[in-house]
Amino acid sequence: MEWNNIRLEGHEGWALLTIDRPKVLNALNRETLDELEQALDRVEESGDIRALIITGSGEKAFVAGADIKELREIPSAHEAERLAEKGQALFSRLEELPVPVIMAAGGFALGGGFELALSGDILLASEKARFGLPEVNLGILPGYGGTQRLARLVGKSTAKYYALTGEMIPAEEAYRLGIVQKVVPHEQLLPEAKSLARTLSKQAPVAMNFIKKSINQGAETDLKTGLRLEASHFGTVFNTEDRMEGMDAFLEKRKASFRGK
Ligand code: HXC
């Protein structure tokens, strides 16, 4: 399939998805959202992609937000709401993807780009990364989940501070706030992401899927319900061949070879 705005590269057990509009700092237009949707179909259908990296092309940006040229032409509140829903659905799908998603941000991750980064499972940043919700400077608000995911992650007050001021968050500060899991030298960003993807691609796929589900679903509910969910998912994973393989491998003092069954 030919895509205009993204590239999907398959490797042994994992894939690298690059948003590729460097002239506009990888801004997300509608076509890019559609292509990302198709790429996720491809990842899910492939059956042998066990970890996904998402990054932006060029030296300056991860993704500098929704495409402001396109936003400028939106004629009505109704259409704006539909666009927000479209992006939100895509980002929620990413969050719930059965395989772990590593976001690798090596530059500006602003507005929709920050919201995209917040929809992954693990966020790696280079020292040059800058995160932020500058929508307020355009007279609008974040629409791809930023007010919700950032507030859940760092608390309401810190989320309000950044969404109201539009101030950028440098990589180290994002790390301190728990937004970013690791900050690495710029040239180490992709090697680090790839090494992590390789590690994850060797873990038990069904267990990883249910770890994601337990944490995602549990974060949206009370502790009692979350613990019920965890116990139920724990039971489900015991139906897999991989749990036998994992335990046998431990007892036989060898490396497990997981098949995703
Ligand atoms: C369209 C964009 C863009 C964007 C950058 N460009 N960001 N085009 N949409 N979000 C374009 C610029 O117009 C410029 O094109 C080229 O990319 C390079 O950008 P510069 O501004 O020249 O680079 P620089 O001076 O280094 O500044 C980098 C920057 C700045 C600080 C990241 O580009 C910037 O503030 N961008 C906008 C960030 C933003 O407001 N994002 C939130 C968008 S709203 P030319 O043709 O001049 O070379 C959003 C809402 C999501 O995301 C929810 C929707 C429902």
What descriptive keywords fit this protein?
single chain; 261 residues; alpha/beta; 2-enoyl-CoA Hydratase, Chain A, domain 1; Lyase 2-enoyl-coa Hydratase, Chain  A, domain 2; 4-stranded mixed beta sheet; 10 strands; globular; binds hexanoyl-coenzyme A; hydro-lyase activity; Short chain enoyl-CoA hydratase; lyase; Enoyl-CoA_hydra/iso; Enoyl-CoA_hydra_C
Which H/E pattern describes the elements?
Answer: EEHEEHHEEHEEHHEHEHHHH
- What value does the average pLDDT take? 97
Provide the CATH topology of the largest domain: 2-enoyl-CoA Hydratase, Chain A, domain 1
Bound molecules: hexanoyl-coenzyme A
Rg to the nearest angstrom? 19 Å
Number of domains: 2
Secondary structure topology:
Layout: E1 6-10, E2 15-19, H1 30-46, E3 52-56, E4 61-63, H2 68-72, H3 77-95, E5 101-105, E6 108-110, H4 112-117, E7 122-126, E8 130-132, H5 146-154, H6 156-165, E9 169-170, H7 171-176, E10 182-184, H8 189-201, H9 205-219, H10 223-237, H11 241-251
Helix pairs in contact: 1-3, 5-6, 9-10
The structure holds hexanoyl-coenzyme A (HXC).
